[in-house]
Amino acid sequence: MRGPLQEPGGKEAxxxxxxxxxxxxxxxPEAEKGSGAGSDSDQETEGARKPGExxxxxxxxxxxxxxxxxxxxCFLRQGNAPELSLRHRGLGPQGARALACALTSNPYxxxxxxxxxxxxxxxxxxxxxxxxxxxxxCDVDLSENWLGAEGARAVCAALxxxxxxxxxQLAGNGLEEQAAQYLAELLLAHTGLKSLDLxxxxxxxxxxxxxxxxxxxKVCRGVSxxxxxxxxxxxxxxxxxxxxxxxxLGGPGxxxxxxxxxxxxxxxxxDISYNGCGDSGASxxxxxxKTNSVLEELYMGNNRISAAGALSLxxxxxxxxxxxxxxxxxxxxxx
Length: 335
Hints:
With 335 residues, the chain is of the alpha/beta class. It is 46% helix and 8% strand. It has a nine-stranded parallel β-sheet. The two termini are 35 Å apart.
C-alpha cells in the first residue's frame, strides 16, 4: 500500500523535447506530420486489424485531437502492457476525457496509475465510465488528484459495479465529510475490494460519525445514529487492507473504527497512524483486539497516546493471538 512506482526514465523527456522542437505534439509519430499524415497513420494501424477495427493508439490520438489535448507519449509506447503508468503527467480533466475513450476498448490493462494529474471531479467522472465497464482493470491509483466529494461519488459508484477492481488508492484527494458517505457505500457493496488507501485526506470525527447516517440506517438500525463508518467496516465482507493514516480522526473516530474492527472478520492490515486518536482511541482498539481474531498488522504510531493508553492497548494484546506486527506510538522526545 505504500510502495510508489518508479518514475519513467530520462529517455521520455528527451523524446518529448525533440517533439516540441519539431513543432509536433509529444507522442505523435513523425509520419503524422503534414495535412494527410493523421489519416495515413490511422490506415496503417487499421491495416493489421479486422476491417472497421481501430487500435488503441489510433483511438487515443483521435480522442486527443477531439478534446484539444497533447497526447501522452508514454501511453503510445506502453501499447498492450498490463500496467499503464501516467503519474505526474498533468493530464487535467480534458486529458482524462481523452484517455477514457481509449481505455474503454483496452482489454489488456490491469493496473492503472494516474497519481498526481489534476483530474479533479470532472476528470474522475470521465474515468468513472471506463472503470464501470472494464473487466480487466484490478488496481487503480487516483491519489493526489483533488477529486473532492463529486469525484469520490463518481469513482465509488463506478467501483461498486466493477467487480474486477481489488485495489484502490485515493490518498491526498481532499476527501471530507461529504465523501465519507460514498466511501461507506463502497465498503458495503463491493465485496471484491481487497485494499483501500484513504491516507492524507481530511476525514475527521464528523466524517466518521455523521457523514453516513443514511447508510447507517440501512444496515445498522440497532446502533445509534452517530456511528456510521464503523458499522460500514463491520458489515464489509472482503476488505483486507485499509489505511486512514494522516487524517483527522480523534478519539470518537478511533472508537467508531475500533467497534467496527470487533465485528470485522476479513481485515488483515489497518493503518490509523498520524491521527491523534489519543488514549480513548487506544483503549477502544485494545478492547477490539480482545475479540478480533484475524487482524495481523496494526499501525498506530503518532497518535498522542500516553502510558495509560499504551497500557490499555497492551491488555488487548495479551488476549489477541493473531496480531504479528504492531507499530507502537512514537516515543516523545524529552523536553
